[in-house]
Amino acid sequence: MLFKENDVILFQGDSITDVGRDRFDAYSLGNGYPLMVAGKLGLLYPEKKLTFYNRGIGGDRAADLVRRWDRDCLALMPTWVSIYVGINESWCRYDSGDETTAEAFEAQYRNLLDRTREALDAKLILVEPFVLPVRGLNRDWREDLDPKIAVVRKLAREYGALLVPLDGLFAAASVKADPAYWAEDGVHPTPAGHALITEAWLKAAGVN
């Protein structure tokens, strides 16, 4: 069991983490996997008095997390830091021509991990981005996203972080049901998609 009494679990990322959280409520978890994870852990371990924060912001890229990391991560003193970022880097390239290279993405991600290591004694859990081939989505996204997924996996190994391998899990799930069942636009998970993320996150964190 990796979780300890009074642990503080922070979820960081973009809209897939945000999912409608209330910006005026510091403890709002939104309506996606952070809420589901918190609910499951709260049910299993009420005696541990766990605290959960969600600081995902829709549209954010790793560069945005770098700018707000002091306020939205380090100041909260989390003992667990979950980072889920990377899909907007591809989105912006194909939507507006604003490209983030894999090298730039890696440098920004390292910035987050290094600052976290220097300031906190926190466990790291890295969630790799995914994309599914649904109608209307530019399938060339894989060309841009795959190197970024490789970066997340590389950094998880290098920093001894736990890895949530979503890309393969969503691809496997899409054999059971149409990709749009899991993410209607290929990017933003449905409730079933968020449940898949929740299960994978808990498994990575050692919760059966």
UniProtKB/TrEMBL annotation:
The keyword Nucleus does not apply. This is SGNH/GDSL hydrolase family protein. It comes from Paenibacillus apii. Keywords: Hydrolase. PANTHER family: SGNH HYDROLASE-TYPE ESTERASE DOMAIN-CONTAINING PROTEIN (PTHR30383:SF5), THIOESTERASE 1/PROTEASE 1/LYSOPHOSPHOLIPASE L1 (PTHR30383). InterPro entries: Ester_Hydrolysis_Enzymes, SGNH_hydro, SGNH_hydro_sf. Pfam families: Lipase_GDSL_2. The lineage of its organism: Bacteria, Bacillati, Bacillota, Bacilli, Bacillales. GO terms for molecular function: phosphatidylcholine lysophospholipase activity. Residues 13-196 form the SGNH hydrolase-type esterase domain.
